[in-house]
Amino acid sequence: MSHSRSGVLAAGVVLTGALAACTGGGPTGDEAPQSSQRTQAQTGPEISDPRSPFAVELCALLPADAATSLGLEPTGEVDDSPKISPDTSDSCVWRSADRHTSVSLAPIKDRSIQEYYDNKSAFSDYQELTIAGHPAVRANQGDPAKDGFCAVFAAVSEREMLYAFASDNSLTDPCGLAQKALEASIPTLPAAK
Asked: Quick check: 175 and 150 in contact, CB under 8 A?
């Protein structure tokens, strides 16, 4: 297993174990906390420009020119690393030619960003962001700069999110890479119906 895959797997395990009320977690963002009241999880910021990440092929979430501009190969591949949970969504991973850097993207159904807002204390590295005009959070255990990987979640509609997981063995700025991937991806998604 490559370092980036083992890092993804380790991040999912750490996040899953750290959250007492989680959905079963894995590298595709299923480690988000479950709200004790589902109705509360359905509230949150209004998404003024809802997009549908499920309306495109998984490995078309990041356009080839955007991947290249991020220093990655233009074509992604479905991530075949072990899943933490059977209900974990598939993700697509784009890697650098030297395989030291990667970005995975995955859509997440039936989750509101409010679940992260309500459980921010569960993450040692937490920051609320706006990415491509959409509310987002950087939510990690540990220190992304030291660990070399970072998870960022963007709300693309009221109940759908787009998850980015960046791994950078050079330990430069994995969170910046995840944010840039989302910034490139979100505007290309079709409008939600």
From this structure: yes
